[in-house]
Amino acid sequence: MSNYQHILIAADFSTHNTLVCEKAREIADRNQAKLSICHIVEDYPITDFAYEPMISVDIDMRDALLGSGKKQIAELAKIIDIPAENQWVEFGNPNHDIVRLAEENKVDLIVAGSHGRHGIQLLLGSTANGILHHAKCDVLAVRLQDN
Amino acid sequence: MSNYQHILIAADFSTHNTLVCEKAREIADRNQAKLSICHIVEDYPITDFAYEPMISVDIDMRDALLGSGKKQIAELAKIIDIPAENQWVEFGNPNHDIVRLAEENKVDLIVAGSHGRHGIQLLLGSTANGILHHAKCDVLAVRLQDN
Asked: Cβ contacts (< 8 Å) between A114 and chain B: which residues?
């Protein structure tokens, strides 16, 4: 059986992201695999009290959010030595766009942090959970200790 | 960062279980980790049409199910060289008892097969999904190609 060839980190900027990144780097090294990192900025429309979409994130705010995401990803990527061309920050739906990026780039392992879930959070699920349902490749959920 | 020390396969006897086992063996070898395998036989009470529990699985049937599970696990374990003392087959709730076994035995990575989910199956979730919610360690979901 072949090793993993291309590993993708799905970063969510939790406080424990460095742990996920370091684990992914270690697995990549052990598999001699290419390592990439992505972050999907969620495009929430701002809604009024009647739950009608009122205004979507405007262009300036969108640029600011994307810029901030790219900066944070670049900092993480520097720690674990991922070149700029393997850093992807986009607007979209995390569950679907992480899986799409993985497919487009022939990723065979997605690594994501997994938070403890309780009560309503358990019902709502998590990004790791959404990826797990939709991914066509293996998914490693790295357990993070929640505060 | 330390490697994985003890890897646990959560086997569900799908047609692709060998793939999950071989992948887990490969990861265990690469990490020089101990490898164990478990299977939890679900203890469904048999219900009547009014959805009242009518009869629970009786002792003979319980023994037969456990025996069959142990035989199948032993066959899988033989392929990937797991000794009898690291094979655990029990009655219970897969989500909770896999996680419990992992905690009791200081497992730091659970490996489970992940099937594609559609429609109602997506809502009901899967074993990999249940493990993901409850595990206190990392979880690798190995994507199985459904027929």
From this structure: 132, 135, 138-139
Closest to A3 measured CA to CA, from A28, A20, A24: A28
CB burial readout A32-61, b (16+ within 10 A) else e = ebbbbbbbbbeeeeeeeeeeeeeeebeeee
Q: Could B132 and A142 be called an inter-chain contact, meaning their C-beta atoms sit closer than 8 Å?
A: no
As given in the structure block, the two tokens for residue A141 are: 């959920």
- Given a contact cutoff of 8 angstroms between Cβ atoms, the answer to whether B16 and B144 are in contact is yes
Encoding tokens for residue B12?
């569900």
Amino acid sitting at position B103 = E
Measured distance CA(B23)–CA(B25) in Å, rounded: 5
Q: How far is B101 from chain A (nearest CA, A)?
A: 17
Tens-place pLDDT, residues A66-94: 999 999 999 999 999 999 999 999 999 88
**Whether A108 contacts chain B with CB within 8 A:** no
Which ipTM score applies to this complex? 0.81
Report the alpha-carbon distance of residue A78 to residue A21 in Å, rounded.
11
Helix segments in A32-140, DSSP class H: 59-79, 94-104, 120-124, 127-134
CA–CA min distance B141, chain A (Å): 5
Show residues of chain B in contact with A138, CB under 8 Å.
23, 114, 140-143
What tokens were used for B22?
């071989």
Residue with tokens 């990999």: B128
Interface check A141 vs B, CB under 8 A: yes
Q: What is the pTM of this model?
A: 0.84
Task: Tell me which DSSP letter residue A74 carries.
Answer: H
Q: How confident is the model over B24-49, as pLDDT tens digits?
A: 999 999 899 999 999 998 876 555 55
